[in-house]
Amino acid sequence: MTSRKWPRRLRPMAVRVALLTAAVLMFAACSDGSDKESNPLDPRGDVAERQIGLLEFWMIPAGVIGALILGATVYVALRFRERPGNENPRQVHGNTTLEIGWTVVPALIMAIMAVPTVSLIWDLDASSAELEAKYDKAPLEVTVYGKQWWWEYQYTNLGELDSSIDFDVNTANELHIPADRPVHFRLLSDNVIHSFWVPSLAGKKDVVPGRANEMWFIAEADDIGQWFYGQCVEYCGLSHADMRLKVKVHEESDFLDWAKGQNEVWSAERVARAEELGITTKWGCVSCHYMGGVDPDADAGIRDGSRANARPGPNLTHLPDRTTFAGAKLDLLNDDGSFDVDKLTEWIWHAGELKPMQCDKPLTESGERCKGMLNFEKSGMTEEEARDIAEFLLELEGAK
Amino acid sequence: MTTVEQALGAGAHPSGVLARPTKTTGAFSWFTPVDHKRSGILYGATALVFFIIAGLEALLIRMQLVGPDQTVLSAKVYNQMFTMHGTTMVFLVGMPMAVAFGNYFLPLMIGARDVAFPRINMLGYWVFLFGGIFMYSSFLWSSAPDGGWFGYAPLTSQPLSSGSLPGYGPDFWTVGLIFMGIGSVTSALNFIVTTLNMRAPGMTLLKMPVFVWMIFVIAFLTLFAMPPVTAALIQVYMDRNFGTHFFNADLANGIGSDPLLYQHLFWLFGHPEVYILILPGMGIVSEILPVFSRKPLFGARVVVFSGIAIGFVGWGVWAHHMYATGLGPAALTGVGVATMAIGVPTGVKIFNWLGTVWGGAVRLKTPMLFSLGFIAMFTLGGLSGVMHSIVPSNSQQTDTYFIVAHFHYVLFGGLIFAFFGGFYYWWPKMFGHFLDERLGKINFWLMLIGFNMTFGPMHLVGLRGMPRRTYTYGEGFGWETLNQIETVGGFIIALSALVFVVNIAVSAKKRELAGDDPWDGRTLEWSIPSPPPVYNFATIPEVHSFDDFWHQKYTEDDEGRLVKLPRGASAADTHAEEHAEHIHLPSPSFWPFVLALGLPIMGYGFVFKAWWVLGLGVFVLMFGLTAWAIEPHTAEEDH
């Protein structure tokens, strides 16, 4: 932990202290023990900080009230225990003053709480135009598609950040964003309800079929280079737990470089090799995954946004740029930074053994009931073939 | 019996097996009872069995979550477990256990000899039992429901061909819940009419015990809450099986729909449901605290009115389950403020309970311990509940383990603690002997410790971002230690439940007789023998005040101190056995059982779309219904 994090760390500590006084003394010894940034109690950026700030505000009266009532419960039980002489206590049927008092006081506390709550509800509900006015720059627009069980992102207004960019970028699971610029999301789904959540940056918002929910957050320059973790938080079926995501914060120029790189497609040579490996033919990978360069129509559709969310599987054109795969569940990299070819091989060969897949059956039996990767081992693929495909997708073949 | 035979004709001659049952004792008579006390025991015992099943499911969940990337359960089985745990606890434990206490004690507490509709009451029980068995039979087809206890569309409503939830899980779930709703509504109607029509002379509404009031309130909540969810469940079933588009959008073909409609309908039931679950617990505690403090319930009317207020406001906060769904700031403001408002009457109750104990003569018997535990744990659940009204910060907590912690503090620390308090309190009345006090204390302390170890850390792990309903989690998020504590706590709760089961057996063997009024009680059930005779009251009591039985025993001096009245000065129950022969009671009947049996048969027809099975079920149901309709209310007596 670097020293610059201290001031931020102090605020969640305040929440924790209040919590402990409320009830959970036994956790005093439990350290956080996390090495992944995914903690709402450690908020980064405006949105998450203001949201959790209200929680801290409430922890003070809640802690006091909780301590008083718990204390009173123990006190009355012990202080008024039956003993010789007090078997016949005075019969009190009620006390109007007291009862009015303990109706009005909580009502007042609630009324006080309501003020910042309601004002923040309205404040955080900001359209793109309002965000632009507030931060004096256009927000980055990202459309998020909830899939079963991964995330697809389509960047739709990169031109407003850099006029030389006249194309959309399409990627999966790992979201790249510039620091100090609000990011405004449209959340869409054509299947079931999901919920998009990056705890460090903002509270969640559901991704509901037939609706276009919106949300936004902003990352700070302090967090450039940082990965934030998130995941789907609305139960969306079998592999809900494995529908994860990561967010990387960049300096804006680096972000734009990354975006430009995402526009490149496979060379004719590479497409030919893909055909040799059966990616575009025998194994039918391309029917579920977009791969830039294979189909010029699809490439154009990705660039202008009309073919976003067109395939059930993620875009594989720039797989080596990612750090994870399988809905950000599995690491693509070994500890030393090299690619984990073995794991990707295993994934291609029989994905259902690494992440629950509803369609763990051979290609020939795949029908409309399928969700997720097929079982290519059962489809007749050899482990060697799977490894060749893995190496090809990771662009390792040249090095061999 | 002749009427039935004539009406049904020779083809469906019900002679022999279906002759009107007359026995009211013996094993077989448990299939035909109409006595509300027997029905109460059946409800309670069945709910206890489901409690143990749901507990085992919870233990499996805890084993899976003891560390990151565990493989105790597969994702599919895990999803089935959390779905069935929630469904079971709400529909097969919480509601029926409240009905069990209500069935047994509501008539006793209002001085009635029976409930208004004894046979309809039994129909409710059989529907609940068969509904539970029906839903659990889904495991035989490896098709246990796996869409969550909330069963959100379109996950549950998409057709089988979409592959969203393969198997028959959502079908068993929707059909099972629709049937159980029938059972809930029948028992609600029975409670309402019984309370309104069968109170002893002199018992005005405000002289009714608080427990009776709470059952009365939840009966109305049940009556109004079941229709919206039943409609939603039928729509889910239709969407899934017959291609309707209530919740399934098919935008490619220009067919719109709104999945959020399901959530509105579900939570319009689901939030009152929370109060349907907790109010009986509040009622039980409101009975126990005065008895073990030897003081009247502080501000009894306020406790009743705040219960009614909760019942009303409870209809206005359903959408606080939907903060993240994109309702817009205006709706969020309204629901957030309403959620804050409902904290006030809830807080009032807590203060009144403490005021009851304050200055009393407290006997820390097991029922009292559970009631005090209820106050403390429910308070914590209430405080975290108020946090849900803070909409912006709630967007960080909703769908995390913080919510799991919150509602277990309310429903386990609240409701289940109250149930256990109720068991220890009323067991002597129901069975004539005490539950063992030493085991009872062990039961309580193990439960208190285990409960806090299990659900306390969930607050923190949820605030740290651990999502609900996930069969696994990765390492490095700071969740591991807390999950380990939770799992250990879960097993301590299981141990506590085991102690209770052992206590039942040990106490039955020991048979430490309790007598009519072991706790120096306040309400009418303590004025009659333990266990009560089948007719309850030999002479219907005449009620003069709130806590009438207490005022027959005690009066107050000028300073308000208790003064014991000399025994016999009151118009005490005479237990006149000779009266009993002339008390008219409803006769046992098969037909509720037969009618209810038709429902699960129909259910299999619906699930598997096997129409001849459905027809068979309809036939059984109609047979039971017709025979019931023409069966005389009471058997012709032999003179």
Distance between the termini of chain A: 39 Å
Helix content of chain A: 25-40%
Structural class call of chain B reads mainly alpha
The shape of chain A is: elongated
SS content category of chain A: alpha+beta
Total individual domains of chain B = 3
And the CATH topology of the largest domain in chain B? Cytochrome C Oxidase, Chain A
SSE diagram, text form:
The complex is a heterodimer of chains A (400) and B (639).
Chain A: H1 6-22, H2 46-79, H3 96-124, H4 128-135, E1 140-147, E2 150-155, H5 158-161, E3 169-172, E4 174-178, E5 183-189, E6 194-198, E7 202-207, E8 213-217, E9 227-231, E10 244-250, H6 252-262, H7 268-276, H8 296-304, E11 324-325, E12 330-331, H9 341-350, H10 383-393
Parallel strand pairs in A: 1-5, 4-10
Antiparallel strand pairs in A: 1-2, 2-3, 5-8, 6-7, 9-10, 11-12
Helix pairs in contact in A: 1-2, 2-3, 9-10
Chain B: H1 2-8, H2 36-64, H3 75-109, H4 118-136, H5 169-197, H6 210-242, H7 259-293, H8 300-313, H9 329-357, H10 366-387, H11 391-397, H12 401-431, H13 437-463, H14 480-510, H15 548-553, E1 554-556, E2 562-564, H16 577-580, H17 591-608, H18 611-630
Antiparallel strand pairs in B: 1-2
Q: What does this entry look like structurally?
A:
Chain A has 400 residues and is of the alpha+beta class. Chain A has 3 domains: 3-80 and 94-124, no CATH class; 137-261, Sandwich (Immunoglobulin-like); 268-399, no CATH class. Helix content of chain A is 36%, strand content 16%. Chain A has helices at 6-22, 46-79, 96-124, 128-135, 158-161, 252-262, 268-276, 296-304, 341-350, 383-393, and strands at residues 140-147, 150-155, 169-172, 174-178, 183-189, 194-198, 202-207, 213-217, 227-231, 244-250, 324-325, 330-331. In chain A, strands 3-2-1-5-8 form a 5-stranded mixed beta sheet. In chain A, strands 4-10-9 form a 3-stranded mixed beta sheet. In chain A, strand 1 and strand 2 form a beta hairpin. Chain A is elongated and about 95 Å long. The two termini of chain A are 39 Å apart. In chain A, 44% of the residues are buried. The model of chain A is unreliable at 1-7 and 25-29 (pLDDT under 50). In chain B, helix 3 (75-109) runs parallel beside helix 5 and helix 7 (259-293) packs antiparallel against helix 10. With 639 residues, chain B is mainly α. Chain B is 62% helix and 1% strand. Chain B is globular and about 80 Å long. Chain B has helices at 2-8, 36-64, 75-109, 118-136, 169-197, 210-242, 259-293, 300-313, 329-357, 366-387, 391-397, 401-431, 437-463, 480-510, 548-553, 577-580, 591-608, 611-630, and strands spanning 554-556, 562-564. In chain B, strands 1-2 form a two-stranded antiparallel sheet. Chain B folds into 3 domains: 1-31 and 587-639, no CATH class; 41-257, Cytochrome C Oxidase, Chain A; 277-514, Cytochrome c oxidase-like, subunit I domain (Cytochrome C Oxidase, Chain A, Up-down Bundle). The chains are: A alpha+beta (400), B mainly alpha (639). The interface between A and B is large, with 110 and 114 residues.
